[in-house]
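User: For a reading group we're discussing how well predicted structures match intuition. Take CBU-0592-like domain-containing protein. Before you show the prediction, I'll give you the sequence so everyone sees exactly what went in.
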Amino acid sequence: MLTFGSVLLTVIGWGGALCALTAYFMVTKRLIEPDSMLYQGLNLGGAFTLCISASVSGAWPSAIVNLICVGIGLQAVLTAKQHVLKALLRRRERAGLARLRQRAGRGPVPVESPARSAHAPLVLR
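Assistant: Thanks. Here is the predicted 3D structure of CBU-0592-like domain-containing protein, as structure tokens, for the group to look at:
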């Protein structure tokens, strides 16, 4: 007889598979970029839930591979967050310098646009 817990874990596993397949489909059809936070989030969610489902089922190779995917996804998201925070700090710093220059009568300093740089591989979308 199926218990509520086993049905719930099965649904979680299928949800993870759906997340991973959705991410792959959307990138393949160029609906989202592979460096977008949506793609990373779908992959993270899919890998995490598939890892849970596989480990409960005793499918250890699959669980370990999905756990590695979770680690890679977390690293990508944390790196993106770090780049975004650094860019925000640089913009605030430049804006502050521009205000100081205007007060001193030397004219404004151009503020850097938030365009994607080579140093920020992931962008928040």
